[in-house]
Amino acid sequence: MSTTHHSHEEAVETVRKLIKGIDMAMLTTISEEGLVSRPMKTQEVEFDGDLWFLTKKNTSKFGEILYDPRVNVVYADKSYISIRGTAEIVTDVNKKKELWSAGYDTFLKTSYDDPAVILIKVHAEAAEYWKSGNLAEKAVYMFKRMTGQDTDGLNLNQTVELE
Questions:
Q1: Which residues form the General stress protein FMN-binding split barrel domain (predicted)?
Q2: DSSP string of the chain, one letter each residue
């Protein structure tokens, strides 16, 4: 794995392309007992360095974010993307309205203007990704790893700094 040193805009664009179209993510928070992960629907907004999720105050993740705002968000599809960041609780009614969709009426059994509904805004700090690549790329990558050769040029596993 190598860390690539892109401009902020290039790093954001790399992550934007990797997560585009992936509907669900695993959000990991820190509780007093340790790490906790759960699936969350990502809001359909272009990634600009922040990720958005809708939930309610009466959930464990709300308390966990107040306890420790450090989080990790993982996406898996044709690639695997792990995004490290800091979560913030947002209660802005206009932002909730902007991100609300009809499905939430049923899923959360309420409306966007309910004070119990909150947004989780994750400010991404870094992202590590593993590209699936084609079979030949994977074979070359595995051969080089097993024989102790440099794999940085293959770009199948990279970390980009987003701050």
A1: 10-148
A2: -EEE---HHHHHHHHHHHHTT--EEEEEEEETTEEEEEEEEPPSS--SSEEEEEEETTSHHHHHHHH--EEEEEEESSEEEEEEEEEEEE--HHHHHHH--HHHHHHSSS-TT-TTEEEEEEEEEEEEEEE---HHHHHHHHHHHHTT---GGG-SEEEEE--
Q: Residues 52-98: pLDDT tens digits?
A: 999 999 999 999 999 999 999 999 987 899 999 999 999 999 999 99
120 in Cβ contact with 52 (< 8 Å): yes
At residue 78, the pLDDT reads 78
Average pLDDT of the residues in 133-155: 66
The token pair that represents 113 in the structure block: 């203007």
Q: Is the pLDDT assigned to residue 144 strictly greater than 70? A: no
CATH code of the domain covering residue 25: 2.30.110.10
The domain tally of the chain equals 1
